[in-house]
């Protein structure tokens, strides 16, 4: 595994948090990638406030998601999970949120057709405000300051004030998540998700001559929609879609403060998002993150990078899903295009042989990060697609189900990843690179990925 920054101290049990046996056990375990809050008084007030605020998501919705993911683990649904590497407070505008939701809905329509399966739609949204970093510091022009760790922890601006770890930011992350979720719920329940509308947007994609190779698939989808119409399909019923929120559960002060006891079952749920995942840098078997997430009822994801062994995967299953509960555990592999065909088979084989039923999802972004010649963190579209293809190939050859796609994407016309049919080159980065952390597929690259993946799914 990657070299990990040293553990930092966390203030003692949080004032105001709900009481439930074991929810604070993580405090005695090794923990990495946590902030060093600069003011203890502010910290105490922030977690106390978070503990008293309403949950962002409801336990019943979380249970529905678990059922949907259980179907995906059985090959009866496909997960599409996408959004920013790092959401920002400033970026939580109606335009940017709607563009992202719209792009995910557009991708989902294409994938639904390609897979002939329901697609579970999930944003890396409404909570994706904290980042693990390779280095604790960043140096610019001889000045060294703490690394940017996401808007929940510090500011991106390169000044000592901004880079200090401010616990008040957790409260702002909560409120920004609440307003983001509010808009997502309005869009996905209020008519914006109408299948005919989303299909109409997709026509814009294939109208671009650079995307002519996707025309025949687009025509097939068009015929399918017309066929549904002719059969009298109830399009009004297709105006609303389920949409789930997810993020990396990194800052345990925040996650702990938002744990709530479900009044129906008396069990603890993380209410900061429907689906919470453990990152590649925080998946230590005896570490704090695995312990805390083992104790909440949400469906949990774990990122598995190229150093993951089958033994790691089996032990994670034992810790996070001891009951082997359908939909509880998702492995999000992020091996890199050059590794996936070699490394993934042994994991899938051993996990399958153990009898565990996890959902396998590919994150084709994080194993394919490179630096462009002009110095930007980027990814080649072809590498990203190659990892997705490798993921499908491995699962097809083992007879297991490639259950989903996890991508860093945006609905905006940014230039952060190289390539695509209407190619982005590195010079475009100078004007259109907006990410504060990892490079995202832009709107067109995201749709192109959906068309390519739909093609592969259709061949199954
Ligand atoms: O999003 C993932 C990580 O936070 C990110 O890849 C780390 O990037 P770094 O290596 O620039 O710290
Ligand atoms: C930090 C991330 O990924 P990973 O944990 O796989 O490196 C991420 O998803 O942005
Ligand atoms: Mn990232």
UniProtKB/TrEMBL annotation:
Residue positions binding Mn(2+): 85, 366, 408, 438
Q: Mind listing the UniProt keywords for this protein, alphabetically?
A: Amino-acid biosynthesis, Aromatic amino acid biosynthesis, Cadmium, Cobalt, Manganese, Transferase
- One biological-process term from Gene Ontology? chorismate biosynthetic process
Q: Which residues form the signal peptide?
A: none
| Reaction it catalyzes | D-erythrose 4-phosphate + phosphoenolpyruvate + H2O = 7-phospho-2-dehydro-3-deoxy-D-arabino-heptonate + phosphate
For this protein, the record's SUPFAM superfamilies field holds:
Aldolase
Family that this chain belongs to: Belongs to the class-II DAHP synthase family.
Q: What is the protein's given name? A: Phospho-2-dehydro-3-deoxyheptonate aldolase
């Amino acid at each position: 595994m990657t070299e990990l920054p040293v553990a930092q101290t966390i203030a003692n049990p949080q004032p105001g948090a709900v009481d439930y046996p074991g929810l604070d056990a993580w405090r005695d375990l090794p923990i990495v990638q946590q902030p060093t809050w600069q003011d203890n008084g502010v910290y105490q007030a922030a977690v106390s406030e978070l503990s008293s605020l309403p949950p962002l998501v409801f336990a019943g919705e979380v249970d529905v998601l678990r059922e949907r993911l259980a179907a995906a683990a059985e090959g009866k649904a496909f997960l599409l999970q996408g959004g920013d590497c790092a959401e920002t407070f400033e970026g939580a505008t109606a335009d940017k949120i709607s563009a992202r939701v719209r792009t995910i809905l557009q991708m989902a329509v294409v994938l639904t057709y390609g897979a002939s399966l329901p697609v579970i739609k999930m944003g890396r949204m409404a909570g994706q405000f904290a980042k693990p970093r390779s280095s604790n510091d960043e140096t610019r022009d001889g000045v060294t300051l703490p690394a940017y760790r996401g808007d929940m922890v510090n500011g991106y601006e390169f000044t000592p004030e901004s880079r200090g770890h401010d616990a008040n930011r957790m409260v702002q992350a909560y409120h920004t998540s609440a307003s983001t979720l509010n808009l997502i719920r309005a869009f996905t329940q209020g008519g914006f998700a109408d299948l005919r509308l989303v299909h109409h947007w997709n026509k814009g994609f294939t109208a671009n001559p650079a995307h002519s190779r996707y025309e025949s698939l687009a025509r097939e989808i068009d015929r399918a929609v017309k066929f549904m119409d002719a059969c009298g399909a109830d399009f009004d019923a297709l105006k609303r879609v389920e949409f789930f929120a997810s993020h990396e559960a990194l800052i345990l002060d925040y996650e702990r403060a938002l744990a709530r006891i479900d009044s129906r079952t008396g069990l603890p749920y993380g209410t900061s998002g429907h689906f919470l995942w453990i990152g590649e840098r925080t998946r230590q078997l005896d570490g704090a993150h695995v312990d805390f997430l083992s104790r909440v009822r949400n469906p949990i994801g774990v990122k598995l990078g190229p150093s993951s062994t089958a033994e790691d995967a089996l032990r994670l299953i034992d810790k996070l899903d001891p009951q082997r509960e359908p939909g509880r555990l998702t492995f999000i592999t992020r091996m890199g295009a050059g590794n996936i065909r070699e490394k993934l088979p042994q994991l899938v084989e051993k996990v399958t042989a153990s009898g565990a039923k996890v959902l396998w999802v590919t994150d084709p972004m994080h194993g394919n990060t490179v630096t462009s010649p002009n110095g930007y963190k980027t990814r080649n579209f072809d590498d990203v697609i190659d990892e997705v293809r490798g993921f499908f190939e491995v699962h097809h050859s083992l007879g297991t189900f490639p259950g989903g796609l996890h991508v860093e994407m945006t609905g905006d016309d940014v230039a952060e990843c190289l390539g695509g049919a209407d190619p982005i080159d590195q010079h475009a980065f100078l004007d259109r690179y907006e990410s504060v952390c990892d490079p995202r597929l832009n709107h067109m690259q995201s749709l192109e990925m959906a068309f390519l993946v739909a093609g592969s799914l259709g061949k199954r």
